[in-house]
Amino acid sequence: MKKIIYFLLALLLSLMLYFGTKAYYYAIAYEQYTTELISHKGATEQAKRQLSKFAKSILGDLYNDETKTSLDAIKTQQTHAMKEAKVFTSYFMIALVLLLLLSYFFMSLRKFTIVGAIAAMIALFFGLITPILMVTIHKEVDYLGDIVLSFESKGIAGSITKLWKGGDIVVALVIFLFSVLTPILKILSLLFVSFFIKNKFAHNIVNFFKLIGKWSMIDVFVVAIFLVYLTANKGDVSRAEVEVGLYFFLAYVLVSMIVSLSADKMLHQKKTNKQK
Fold it and tell me: Can you tell me the distance from the alpha carbon of 83 to that of 189, in angstroms, rounded to the nearest whole number?
């Protein structure tokens, strides 16, 4: 029975990696297709399109608008990429839930904590590298229509790099500290406590674990600040679109909270048994 459980856990972890990779691939593809479409919404491109429409209205079927045909093909690919990214993200979440349920009901609390911490690390990894938010700043211009002035699509890791290179070092360090470093340290502390709970250094790890646990809600706070920071602008109109990277990061936040409670309960049981 144990071998079957271990096999299923390994299978689910492998599926999480596979689904996460596919979701990342399609999210990047969606970003690339969107970038290509946005490149056709500048002032010059829009002026050309207006001329094409004028020519079409005069010449009718004699005029072949190759640009429109090309854009329609890109839009089809863009829609497909976004759909696939969401599908594989859903598969990832299903595998994650099954993994947690299987390990919780059929394994010890210690092993559940280990499995949950590994799952949280996987979710965090994809949450950091996958695009999390797409923001476009556009403006309605007479005779030209909707002109895109700025376009950004970044994940947390990419945004930290851009902020650092752009001179926003403080913001970059804050996001790195609470969205990258703190989550990694939290997961490593959970794994360390789980593996070395009987070790003589366990008490020191307990104190460190409690310190890290105080920052559990910082992850949610950072996501909110991150979204506000990206969508903030001083003029024109912005349009924000949440991408699948946000769901991976939120999955990490939820799983890490569950695993933190599990580890806390495990440490409490150890302390109670020792007193007896």
Answer: 37
Distances from the Cα of 235 to the Cα of 149, 167, 210, 231, angstroms: 11, 22, 44, 11
Q: What percent of the chain has pLDDT over 70?
A: 65
Question: pTM, whole model, 2 decimals?
Answer: 0.81
How far apart CA 187 and CA 236 sit, in angstroms, is 42
In the block, tokens 């920052």 appear at 215
**Taking the domains of the chain in order of start, what are their residue ranges?**
2-275
Instruction: Give the model's confidence band at 144: pLDDT under 50 very low, under 70 low, under 90 confident, else very high.
Output: very low
Q: Distances from the Cα of 85 to the Cαs of 23, 46, 76, in angstroms?
A: 4, 30, 14
Q: In the structure, what pLDDT confidence band is assigned to residue 203 with cuts at 50, 70 and 90?
A: low
